[in-house]
Give the backbone structure.
Amino acid sequence: MRRSSPLTIIQMVVSPAVEPRRRSKVCRQSGGNSTYSDGHYTDYQAFVIRRLPVTRSILRALAAAAVVLTFGLAPAAAQTGQMFGELVGKVTDDQGGVLPGVTVTLMGPAAMGTPTATTNAQGIYRFPAVNTGTYQLKFELAGFAPLLREGIVVPVRQTITVDAAMKIASLQETVTVSGQSPSVDVENTKVGARLDHETLTSVPTSRTIFGSTTVLPGMTMGRQDPGGLNAATSTGMVAHGAANYNLNYYGVTADTPQNYGSMYYMDFGSAEEISVDTAAMGAEVGGGGGANINVIPKTGGNNLKGDAFYSVTGKGYWDHFTGNNITDELRAQGVTDPSLHGLQDFNADAGGPFIKDRFWWFGSFRNYRTIDATPGYSIVNSDGSLTNPFLSNLRNYTTSGKYQISKNNQLSMFWTYNKKFQPHRNAGVSQPNPIGTLHQESPKNLINANYTSVMGSNTFLEVSSTYFHMHWPSDWSDEFYALSPSQQRPTTFNITTGIYIDGPEPTGQRFRDAYRHQTNVGVTRHID
C-alpha cells in the first residue's frame, strides 16, 4: 500500500462583482451629496482549503489538470461528488471466503442503463457515482446461485455498504433478499440529514429551500415566513446556533462568494432531494460552522413523466378558498388578519428520454406571486380592496440533460434562471410613498457542465465547470419617473417621525453585476 502525502488544496474563486455607480439626477438636484461616483470595482477572493491526504500517484494527475483550468482550481475534493451517492460492499461465500470476479449489476429507474461492476481480489465491488434513488443489486458468479438485493436507498453524498453472501448453486434458483436497506454511512463523519422527494412533497412547508430545512433538528430561519409570504425576500439560516450557510445546486455554489446563496431563489418543484450538513463537513466547505445545503434537482428517465402544482389563497375573489378562524372576540383582543392579500404558486416539470438508457432530458417552470398589505405603506379600504399593494414575483426556468457517452463516462449539463421582481422595494413605515420606493428586477443565470468517469475499479474522476451571473439593478420607481422634471425632488428625512418624504433616497439607485466562474476537478482513488 502506498503511503499518502499531505497536500494543501487552494481553491481560487475569481468573482468580479462589477457595479457601475451612476451619479443620478436627484443627486445633482440635492447638491451632489451622494457618496456614489462614476466608476466600478472588482473583487477577487481566494480560500485556503484544509490539508488533505492524497496519494503521490494522484499529484501528477492534479498537476496536469491545473494546466487546463481557466477559471479556478479546486482539485481532489472541492465541491465534487456532491450530487452522487456511492455503493460499495464485499461479496463472500456462505463460509466467509471472499469471491473475486462476481458480476454485480445495478438496477433501478434512476440508473441510466444497467451499470455493472466486478469484485476484485478482495471481493470488493464499488459504484462510485450513483444518482439518488432506490435500487436493486444482482450478484452473479458461475457455480453460485444468483443473489438479488432489493430496496436499496442511495442518498446523495453518502456511501452505502451492501455486503452479500452467495450460496453454491444446487439447482436453478435465484435468492432474493428483501427488506429495509442499510442506511448507515460508515465511511463519512459529517453530521446532517436529508429530505427526500416524498418528504419535500408531503410535509407542509412554505415550499422554499430554507423553509423546508427547518423541519430538521437544529435548523431555523433568520426570519418568519408563514405560508411563503416572505419567500421573495432573502433570509439567513441558523444551524445549531451558527448563522453561516452555503447553498449549492447540483453540487455547485448557487451564488457569488459575497452572498453565500442568499440572493438566489430556487425552483422548489425541481428539487428531488435536499441534504444538509451541519458539522464535520468536507474541505470544500471550509470552517465557520453553520450549514452546507445541497439541492439535488430532478432528472429525466426512461419513462416520460411530470408533475404540476398550483395553489392560491388571498382575499376578495379568493375568500371562498381561504380559511379564517379569527372571530370578533379575538379581534377585540388585538388579533388582526394576516397581511397577505394574495398568493399564487404555479409549478410544473417534465422529464423523459431522448434515447432510452443513453440521453435524458428534464425541464421545470415556476411562477410565484404574492400581494401583501405592508404596514405603513399599504392601505386596506373598507370594501377589502388594497391601495398601494406590495407585489413580489419570482420566476424560474430550469432545464437539464444527461448523456451516457460510454459505459463508464457520462456528461450532464443544466441551466437554471431566476428573476425577482419587486416594483416597490423598501416600502414600509419609513417609506410610505410609492414615489420614494425602488424598482427591482434582477435576473440570475446558473450554467453547469459536469463530466464523470469511472477509471477502473477504484478510481473516479469528476470535472465540473460553472458560470453564474447576477444582474441587480436598483432603480427608482415607475411612479417617480412618471413625474415631470420639476416634480422630481430629492428625498427629505424627518428625524422626528422617522419617515422619508418626497422622492427616493439618492443612494438607492445602483446597478450591480456579479459573476462567478468556477471549475472543479476531483479525483478519488480507493485503496482497498
